[in-house]
Hints:
Protein name: Cwf19-like C-terminal domain-containing protein
Pfam family, one: CwfJ_C_1
Number of helices: 8
Radius of gyration: 23 Å
Order of helices and strands: EHEHEHEEEEHEHEEHEHEEEEEEHEEE
Number of strands: 20
Domain Cwf19-like C-terminal: 309-343
Region (Disordered): 267-306
InterPro entries: Cwf19-like, Cwf19-like_C_dom-1, Metallo-depent_PP-like
Low-confidence stretches: 277-298
Shape: globular
Structural class: alpha/beta
Helix content: 10-25%
Amino acid sequence: MAAPKIIVFGSLNGQLKPALTKLAALHAKNDFALAIFTGDVFAPDDDPDLTAELLAGSIQFPIPVYFSLGLCPLPPAITQKLEANQPICDNFFYLDKRSITTTAEGIRIVVLAGLLDSDANGDQATHQHLPSHSLQDAKTLRGANSAHVLLTSMWPAEIWTGSKVVLEPQQQAALQSSQPLAELCAALKPRYHLSASPDAFFYEREPFLHPAASDSDAVQSVTRFISMAPFGNTAKAKAMYAFSLNTADVSLPVGVTPSPFAAIHQHKKRRAEDSGSYSRFGALDPDPSDSYGRGHKRRRHAAPPPPGPDRCYFCLSNPNISAHMCCSIGDESYITTAKGPLLTSTIFADP
């Protein structure tokens, strides 16, 4: 089976129709499997005519298109549609700001959209259609364990470390980055980390190599970080990018660099090494005649990473969930019957 071809667009900022015209022309020549729109698809000021056409199904999407939040809220009519768990239109798929999605082609997309709000609480922290996320959101997504594509609104902190690609001072001053995103990228080791530039510039860092999780780990994980310029920008900076996702290719690309997240990897390594139980005799040389085993360090195995939503049989995002057992699905929770023997009075309300 051929590797699926993916095309990525920068922020459209309301230029949805011109972008789809361009997408249709490129798809006719390249046969893309899907498209990903980064940043803000809609303009900060809602265009009611565009929204009405979109919801009426008058705008055609030639291939499946995936998008999430950027830095601006979605138009109210779009939000209302999503909150009612209804599709916007054919081939146009919204990815929740903190989500894990596997496409029909088997492409695993992890999303953490919006800006980091360290003080987020209440609706601001949990509402899937507001352009912000919390520290807990970033920590929770580490449980996804892996991703083919990581889609974020912000940049990971220090992503430019060790790179020869020039990032102008004014460009660096304009962008917003965060350490939790760097930790998320280091944990998931995605093939591609996609974002949207805050100004009219395109940035593609050299591919970087993540350290092996253990000495026996033969798989070399490489990430490409790419930030798209806004679509239709007057500077004519690159706003479209296409690639083939060949998951079977484990060779190192030309120009690969060490990971810019070396400090994160070192911290994780030290934490794993320090996970053994403490012994006040640990500094002594082992004495084989000591029947109590003093002088021998006892180490506990490092705890395995938490299971991702795709391995939790309570998570609705799990493709193998027993959907036939769900009785009712609400905005914040759902009701399901218990696994095992059917009883007359046992149901679960899961958040």
